[in-house]
């Protein structure tokens, strides 16, 4: 063999080795099915949705600096302000008027100036009051205007302001000092000196306008578990309305069914052996009622939801798009989640969809429980929407978004990862049919929905707020209640007000009522309200006149005025109620969206109650009113501490105006009665405790819009359903090899506490 032949063989060998290496490298690469596929929907927003965007931390700082230098009064940081000080209570975005926004979004008008709404407590004035200022333009403020009188018809009295964290701290100091006056009683009843007990506020605070007198309930506290299930039987009434903390005082004491003028009197009764004491042992960590610590070691992991080729939705700034949907999202620090400019296939369906209020109204034979009517907006539904736990609160691979707020501080705070967005496989067909007659085929579409979620922890309860967007063009709004029940000390006829759930614990009955604002714009701003329901009519049988038949027919009605469109809670209402456009679909019917409510609400507070007007939105499961800029919300954060003279009374919105071809708003109440039971320990479960409503297209389209979904499946009896080109489901086995690259688990939800 000569040298030339050897060289040729070597070259061929090297070429073969190179080819084999290329094959092996190609085989080792991630299949193309695993590559991220960006969503097909084109994003043409160009930042327009930022007109609704929450304030950035930088904008909040600029507003604070401007107010500090422009009001001519000394401002104390709210985190340490006394009632006799002036302070900035909160700063939030001021959403422009709807007409301005629509000129900008739809008419090519100028972008409205960006402004903030600042709430200030003026305690260091001859006439202490709460004042609201609109500050702008951002990011460099140059003006402010007082809008308090414009919004509320007068000044907001100082006693209506929400209680600050600093005020609660001062109240706690007062109570701790008073508890030290009964050392022998506490040693006997609670194995405590009183200083290690947890203190829970109630609300409202008194019986008439101007009162600021609050019952506080005492509980055994144990680190790592909720104290809400361990009442010790003691409750104290504190008067804290004076501007000077030194003048606050404890007015009354309640223990085990008896009332005392002071903790000193309680101690005297105990020493004189005139008091029946129920001895409650201090709970032990391993046996405390309500502990959520796992009782078993972890098992194998459950199903994991992920997107093989990446998310099919897009989040940009405050806007999410998904398969024809476009939604601007945000968070009000008081009232919670708010959505704007909800569009499907480019058409606006809803201008505003926002949570308004969450009411929890309790019953008990203890003073704290029987007087409690929490209006959670005054505490901060959005402010207390903390970081979500990846993989449990939301799918592990969901998109997590930070929310910023400025409340009771001059420095913005961030609840990181406190809103999540994800596509959810509901494990249910959106629609399907199996044909076994005439021809053989199967057609269907899986039910995938886009979900926007936040979870608020309001003292003991956790509310899960969901906004879901379906491929059929429907919007679903849902809330679940979980967390700890609140409880009273079990004494006397306590079970008239709930169930016993522990040795000395009464799970107190209560109502959850939630209120939403839905500003529907169905094929334009001008809509009417149409209802449809069923009836039977006894008629002679057309083909057999000697017989009769109960013929089912459709009753249609257009509601002309607000009074006709205000449906009392728990009263019958038409099964179909729609916001209808003047324009017809292909088949001659008004393009409409139907409101469908799912609720199990308890009874509303009697209208004879002196505080009922403050929650008069709860009178109605649905009320439709003409939209007005001066009626932006159904309630106010000031209603909690003065429900007897409410700053905003929703009942006044319903004044029998015409609602035909007008810009209309649907105000929707949902709720349920909760009688706590043994299975509410440690926590109330979400099963069966979900309520909400749907906005469903009703003749809005010419057919179900989901027919255009790329996820549709169809195959006939003559086709091989196992072929990927015939049936997309057959493509899943190779796609399922695309294991997700999960980010490391991290949680920082305790950082802002």
Automatic annotation (TrEMBL):
Residues with the 2',4',5'-topaquinone modification: 461
Gene3D superfamilies xrefs: 3.10.450.40, Copper amine oxidase, catalytic domain
SUPFAM superfamilies in the record: Amine oxidase catalytic domain (SSF49998), Amine oxidase N-terminal region (SSF54416)
Copper amine oxidase N3-terminal domain residues: 161-257
Domain Copper amine oxidase N2-terminal intervals: 74-143
Pfam families (alphabetical): Cu_amine_oxid, Cu_amine_oxidN2, Cu_amine_oxidN3
Region: Disordered, residue numbers: 291-310
Active-site annotation: 376 (proton acceptor), 461 (schiff-base intermediate with substrate)
An annotated GO cellular component: plasma membrane
Domain Copper amine oxidase catalytic: 305-706
Cofactor(s) the record lists: Cu cation
EC number(s) stated in the UniProt entry for this protein: 1.4.3.-
Alphabetized UniProt keyword annotations: Copper, Metal-binding, Oxidoreductase, TPQ
GO biological process, one term: amine metabolic process
Post-translational modification summary for this protein: Topaquinone (TPQ) is generated by copper-dependent autoxidation of a specific tyrosyl residue.
PROSITE patterns: COPPER_AMINE_OXID_1
Free-text cofactor note: Contains 1 topaquinone per subunit.
GO molecular function annotations of the record: copper ion binding; primary methylamine oxidase activity; quinone binding
Family per record: Belongs to the copper/topaquinone oxidase family.
Name used for this protein in its record: Amine oxidase
Species name: Oceanites oceanicus (Wilson's storm petrel)
Gene name as annotated: Aoc3
């Amino acid at each position: 063999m000569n040298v030339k032949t050897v060289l040729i063989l070597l070259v061929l060998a090297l070429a073969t080795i190179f080819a084999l290496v290329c094959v092996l490298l190609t085989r080792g690469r991630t299949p193309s099915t695993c590559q991220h596929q960006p969503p097909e929907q084109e994003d043409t927003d160009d930042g327009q949705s930022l007109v609704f965007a929450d304030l950035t931390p930088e904008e909040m700082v600029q507003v604070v600096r401007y107010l500090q230098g422009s009001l001519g009064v000394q401002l104390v940081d709210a985190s340490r302000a006394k009632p006799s000080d002036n302070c900035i209570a909160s700063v939030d975005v001021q959403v422009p008027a709807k007409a301005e926004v629509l000129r900008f979004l739809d008419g090519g008008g100028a972008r409205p100036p960006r402004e903030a709404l600042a709430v200030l407590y003026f305690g260091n004035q001859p006439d202490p009051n709460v004042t609201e200022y609109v500050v702008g333009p951002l990011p460099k403020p140059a003006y402010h205007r007082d809008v308090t009188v414009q919004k509320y018809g007068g000044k907001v009295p100082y006693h209506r302001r929400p209680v600050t964290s600093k005020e609660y701290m001062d109240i706690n100091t007062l109570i701790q000092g008073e508890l030290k006056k009964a050392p022998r009683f506490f040693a006997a009843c609670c194995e405590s000196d009183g200083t290690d007990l947890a203190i829970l506020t109630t609300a409202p605070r008194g019986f008439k306008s101007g009162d600021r007198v609050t019952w506080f309930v005492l509980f055994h506290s144990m680190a790592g578990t909720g104290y809400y299930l361990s009442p010790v039987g003691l409750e104290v009434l504190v008067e804290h309305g004076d501007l000077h903390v030194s003048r606050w005082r404890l007015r009354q004491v309640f223990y085990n069914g008896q009332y005392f003028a002071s903790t000193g009197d309680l101690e005297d009764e105990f020493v004189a052996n005139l008091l029946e004491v129920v001895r409650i042992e201090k709970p032990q960590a391993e046996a405390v009622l309500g502990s959520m610590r796992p009782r078993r070691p972890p098992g194998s992991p459950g199903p994991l939801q992920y997107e093989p080729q990446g998310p099919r939705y897009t989040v940009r700034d405050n806007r999410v798009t998904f398969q024809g949907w476009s939604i601007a999202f945000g968070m009000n620090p008081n009232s919670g989640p708010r959505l704007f400019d909800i569009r499907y296939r480019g058409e606006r369906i809803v201008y505003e969809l926002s949570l308004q209020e969450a009411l929890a109204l309790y019953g008990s034979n203890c003073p704290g429980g029987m007087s409690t009517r929490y209006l959670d907006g005054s505490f901060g539904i959005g402010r207390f929407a903390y970081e979500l736990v990846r993989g449990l609160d939301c799918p592990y691979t969901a998109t997590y978004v930070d929310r910023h707020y400025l409340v009771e501080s001059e420095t913005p705070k961030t609840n990181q990862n406190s809103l999540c967005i994800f596509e959810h496989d509901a494990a249910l067909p959106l629609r399907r049919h199996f044909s076994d007659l005439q021809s053989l085929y199967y057609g269907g579409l899986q039910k995938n929905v886009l979900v926007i979620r936040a979870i608020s922890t309001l003292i003991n309860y956790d509310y899960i707020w969901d906004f879901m967007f379906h491929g059929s063009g429907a919007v679903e709004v849902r809330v679940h209640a979980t967390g700890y029940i609140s409880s009273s000390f079990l004494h006397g006829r306590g079970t008239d007000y709930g169930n016993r759930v522990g040795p000395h614990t009464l799970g107190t009955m209560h109502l959850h009522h939630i209120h939403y604002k839905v500003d529907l714009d169905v094929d334009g701003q001008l809509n009417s309200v149409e209802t449809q329901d069923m009836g039977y009519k006894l008629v002679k049988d057309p083909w057999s006149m000697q017989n009769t038949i109960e013929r089912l027919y459709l009753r249609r009605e257009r509601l002309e005025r607000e009074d006709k469109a205000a449906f009392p809670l728990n009263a019958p209402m038409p099964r179909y109620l729609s916001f209808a456009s003047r324009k017809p679909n292909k088949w001659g019917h008004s393009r409409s969206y139907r409101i469908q409510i799912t609720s199990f609400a308890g009874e509303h507070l009697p209208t004879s109650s002196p505080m009922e007007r403050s929650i008069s939105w709860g009178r109605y499961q649905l009320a439709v009113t003409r939209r007005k800029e001066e009626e932006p919300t159904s309630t106010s954060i000031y209603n909690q501490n003065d429900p007897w003279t409410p700053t905003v009374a929703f009942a006044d919105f319903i004044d029998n105006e015409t609602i035909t071809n007008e810009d209309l708003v649907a105000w929707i109440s949902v709720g349920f009665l909760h009688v706590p039971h043994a299975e509410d320990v440690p926590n109330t479960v979400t099963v069966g405790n979900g309520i909400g409503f749907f906005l469903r297209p009703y003749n809005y389209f010419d057919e179900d819009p989901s027919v255009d979904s790329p996820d549709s499946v169809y195959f006939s009896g003559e086709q091989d359903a196992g072929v990927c080109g015939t049936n997309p489901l057959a493509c899943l086995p190779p796609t399922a090899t695309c294991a997700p690259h999960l980010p490391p688990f991290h949680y920082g939800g305790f950082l802002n506490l």
